[in-house]
């Protein structure tokens, strides 16, 4: 019962955040932080290491979190909970470079405004960088960020050898308005609050 209440409260916070005022288009770094913090999953693209697909782009959906739901709860760091059994993680073991796309299309915001997911006003962010396992000092932060949004993760099979990882951001592109992509540096991104 407590878990259900927590999920309902978290969903309500997400609805309020995503349905409320979003940063203006001239604040691209804030927009990037806002979108990441209000999204629970993203499309992670790797270069495939699988037989028959070697070197081809391969996108897969992953649950993500930069911190507990609610305003001011995000660190800006996309955390993931991974296992070596997963096909994209096997790709990352060969080449850790990846891109991660997150979109407000997964929140009520775009539907409320009747924005198609491809409409630039339905903001999406593309991060490029690499996936790295978090060290012991960061594992608690990653666990809190992920399990607060994805409580089911705690019950996933222990024999899958799950581990916490983060997306090390090197490049950021924001599409939140007409006129093309905006480039945000990691320094700009981490210096603002969503």
From TrEMBL:
Gene3D superfamilies: Electron Transport, Fmn-binding Protein, Chain A. InterPro entries: CREG (IPR014631), CREG_beta-barrel (IPR055343), Split_barrel_FMN-bd (IPR012349). It is found in: Secreted. SUPFAM superfamilies: FMN-binding split barrel (SSF50475). It comes from the Eukaryota. Keywords: Glycoprotein, Secreted, Signal. This is CREG1 protein. It comes from Pterocles burchelli. The lineage of its organism: Eukaryota, Metazoa, Chordata, Craniata, Vertebrata. The gene is Creg1.
């Amino acid at each position: 019962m407590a878990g259900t209440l927590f999920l309902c409260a978290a969903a309500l916070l997400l609805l309020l955040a995503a349905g409320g005022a979003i940063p203006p288009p001239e604040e691209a770094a804030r927009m990037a932080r806002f979108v990441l913090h209000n999204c629970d999953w993203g499309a992670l693209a790797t270069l495939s290491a699988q037989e028959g697909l070697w070197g081809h782009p391969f996108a897969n959906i992953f649950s993500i979190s930069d911190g507990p739901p609610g305003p001011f709860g995000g660190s800006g760091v996309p955390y993931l909970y991974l296992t070596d059994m997963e096909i994209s993680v096997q790709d990352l073991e060969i080449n850790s470079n990846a891109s991660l796309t997150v979109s407000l299309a997964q929140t009520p915001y775009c539907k409320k405004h009747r924005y198609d997911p491809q409409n630039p006003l339905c903001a999406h962010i593309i991060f490029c960088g690499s996936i790295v396992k978090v060290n012991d000092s960061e594992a608690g932060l990653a666990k809190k960020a992920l399990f607060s949004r994805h409580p089911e993760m705690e019950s996933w099979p222990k024999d899958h050898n799950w581990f916490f990882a983060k997306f090390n951001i090197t490049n950021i592109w924001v599409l939140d308005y007409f006129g093309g992509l905006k480039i945000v540096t990691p320094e700009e991104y981490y210096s603002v609050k969503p």
